[in-house]
């Protein structure tokens, strides 16, 4: 089987063109416990992320993801779990459907970018297998009380709206070591129960621009928040803190300071249109000054096309995505904005560019009759995600990971 896999991968390389990184693309690049990651797999995952137009340091993200997948396979093997080919194919169809494509069409599009079908298949299989691991390990202990559901339904009812005052802490987690340290610190910070203690922690530990004001944010309509965060916020009492939430290159925590009901019905954002203009220089003074200059010149997302004229296409990206599919750090910033407003709180994953993030618009859906089972499942999914994050951090901390090249 191993020889057959190597032969197949060899054919894929011949079709895709020269290897990106090494003269021998099948040489082991990283060892994770008893499993290896080949240079071919690493190069392919980078190409896959490039084709998906993922932001940040794609090489590091690809390496981190592949390492995590090896750890997830170990966990699945320990529990005796596996995923069948038919299940994987269904997962590929679901993933491709997010781009309004069939799996066959998606594979063809990826092939034009040099991405082998097996790379897409492995990516989907790993994600599905990890979900099974999390359900098997944590599902029985993930309990949502009827009181929590009642509170979420009450606050999300269509008879009125809700807006919240929250504070935020973003702990840097851009390397495996910093992520492990951030996870440990986040567990402690999530136990905070006073506004003053959270504000002090934000000033000391947070990497967000809001740290100077103790992490405090202005009023935010609850419907603007990403679903995973909204589900937690609606079950908190003032002073309480969410469980740690994984976002790209950081771990986030939010404290509820106040909650206010309004006369207008809640309108939940089901999709968001936003633009990102990348300014070289990271968070340097020159880059921030350039952002201020652009902010004074533009009123709408369309105006950014004039700013980006004559520059490489990837300097300006404009997307329309369902809220659930927007990267966590971007979704959080967009929740704070009204149409035409801008955030400069984010940088790319490698820190080389400042992200000029502009909200173009939201597609809203008034929340009519909430379904108890849907609310229950939302709360369960959020808690499972928190358990999964902590478990993966434990697996990584206990693993033997060695770069071979």
TrEMBL record:
Keywords of the record: Chaperone, Isomerase, Periplasm, Rotamase, Signal
Membrane spanning stretches: none
Name of the featured protein: Parvulin-like PPIase
Signal sequence interval, chain numbering: 1-21
PANTHER family: CHAPERONE SURA
Domain of life: Bacteria
Classification via InterPro entries: OMP_Chaperone_SurA, PPIase_dom_sf, PPIase_PpiC, SurA_N, Trigger_fact/SurA_dom_sf
Pfam short name (any one): Rotamase
């Amino acid at each position: 089987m191993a020889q057959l896999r190597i032969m197949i991968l060899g054919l894929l390389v011949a079709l895709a063109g020269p290897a990106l990184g090494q003269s021998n693309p099948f040489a082991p690049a990283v060892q994770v416990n008893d499993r290896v990651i080949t240079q071919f797999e690493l190069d392919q995952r980078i190409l896959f992320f490039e084709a998906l137009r993922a932001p940040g340091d794609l090489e590091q993200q690809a390496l981190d993801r592949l390492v995590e997948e090896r750890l997830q396979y170990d966990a699945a093997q320990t529990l005796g779990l596996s995923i069948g080919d038919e299940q994987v194919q269904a997962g590929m169809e679901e993933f491709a459907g997010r781009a309004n494509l069939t799996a066959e069409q998606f594979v063809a599009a990826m092939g034009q970018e040099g991405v082998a079908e097996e790379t897409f298949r492995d990516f989907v299989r790993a994600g599905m297998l990890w979900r099974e691991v999390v359900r098997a390990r944590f599902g029985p202990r993930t309990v949502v009380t009827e009181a929590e559901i009642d509170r979420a339904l009450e606050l999300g009812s269509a008879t009125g709206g809700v807006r919240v005052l929250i504070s935020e802490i973003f702990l840097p987690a851009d390397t495996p070591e910093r992520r492990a340290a951030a996870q440990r610190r986040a567990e402690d910070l999530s136990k905070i129960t006073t506004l003053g203690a959270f504000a002090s922690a934000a000033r000391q530990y947070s990497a967000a621009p809001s740290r100077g004001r103790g992490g405090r944010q202005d009023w935010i309509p609850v419907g603007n928040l990403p679903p995973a965060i909204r589900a937690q916020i609606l079950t908190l009492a003032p002073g309480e803190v969410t469980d740690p939430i994984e976002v790209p290159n950081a771990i986030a925590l939010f404290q509820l300071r106040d909650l206010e009901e309004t006369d207008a019905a809640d309108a939940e954002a089901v999709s968001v249109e936003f633009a990102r203009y990348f300014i070289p220089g990271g968070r340097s003074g020159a880059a921030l000054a350039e952002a201020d200059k652009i902010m004074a010149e533009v009123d709408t997302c369309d105006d950014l096309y004039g700013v980006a004229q004559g520059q490489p296409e990837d300097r300006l990206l404009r997307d329309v995505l369902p809220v659930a599919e927007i990267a966590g750090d971007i979704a959080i910033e967009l929740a704070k904005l009204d149409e035409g407003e801008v955030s400069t709180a984010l940088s790319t994953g490698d820190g080389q560019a400042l992200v000029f993030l502009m909200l173009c618009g939201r597609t809203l859906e008034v929340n009519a009759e909430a379904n108890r089972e849907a609310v229950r499942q939302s709360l369960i999914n959020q808690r499972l995600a928190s358990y999964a994050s902590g478990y993966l951090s434990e697996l990584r901390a206990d693993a033997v990971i060695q770069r071979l090249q």
